[in-house]
Amino acid sequence: MGRVYNFSAGPAVLPEEVLREAAEEMLDYKGTGMSVMEMSHRSKAYDDIIKEAERDIRELMNIPDNYKVLFLQGGASQQFAAVPMNLMKNRKAAYIITGQWAKKAFAEAKIYGEAVAVASSADKTFSYIPDCSDLDIPEDADYVYICENNTIYGTKFWELPNTKGKDLVADVSSCFLSEPVDVTKYGVIYGGVQKNVGPAGVVIAIIREDLIRDDVLEGTPTMLKWKTQADADSLYNTPPCYGIYICGKVFKWIKKMGGLEAMKAHNEKKAKILYDFLDESKLFKGTVEKKDRSLMNVPFVTGNEELDKKFVAEAKAAGFENLKGHRTVGGMRASIYNAMPIEGVEKLVEFMKKFEAENS
Ligand SMILES: *Cc1c(COP(=O)(O)O)cnc(C)c1O
Fold this sequence. Notes:
Aspartate Aminotransferase, domain 1, 2 domains, alpha/beta, globular, 360 residues, 9 helices, Aspartate Aminotransferase, domain 2, binds pyridoxal-5'-phosphate
């Protein structure tokens, strides 16, 4: 059985080269006589792995020295709580609701304080990004929150909101390392890595140092306090060692590919192939506003549920996996993260053309 073209939204495709390298090192990591899975997180070998991973992501994203990089666990969803717990000094925050993940983060924040929805695209099933140039952001809001790339609906903030001076917190789970970012525009950038960077179980948080504080909300668990993790260089307790090791390999792969500029060009090229086809097809069509289209997650429909089902089944049989849309929206979705090769998208479009010819 060969490898399929895996269009899963997450956990998702990883670079084959990374998987092969990990396989080679499985039984004996660099002469240690053991797997990375089996070694102490306090060992010299592991210390080198996590330090190098941090150096590489800092270099890739050009992260300034006054930002900490934390390798955490609990997934992106755990940070839905950690964000308000660590940042809600005034117990108030502004949320922009552009999909299910933003909604979940918003609901979680409400447990800890007053979360205010300052904009939403719920009126049109989250098929666009609202205008965020002049929002009514409360004077005493502790931060403004966005989900930068909406994995389920396939939209992306191409322009960051005007936060009126408040710190911006962004969930970048599904666009992590897909293009260059200006870290200085954010207070906190965090993401679960299983979409674009590594195996599930690791979440990376990049946090401006002044936001890492002792005076967090009362009752914040030690493990969720960013300061605990920052003071211990992400080694307060046993971290998701193996997952971080794979992330480190993905960072090296991205560097080898030419860094984030090159990733962006690669991702734009792939997305264009698919979007251009969707725009000319008589059968398939994209579901979101063109100006807000994601480069990573591309939802589309035929307009006929039965035909959608048939397409997903036939695509699967032809080696294109996980094209079914999210259970809450139906239709199809092709997630074309960094590690999806151009041929994967070209072949998918060829297959869609054939399906269109046979079904119209
Ligand atoms: C997948 C996803 C999440 C949830 O991630 P978990 O690691 O499963 O908690 C949150 N936000 C976004 C944008 C996602 O794509």
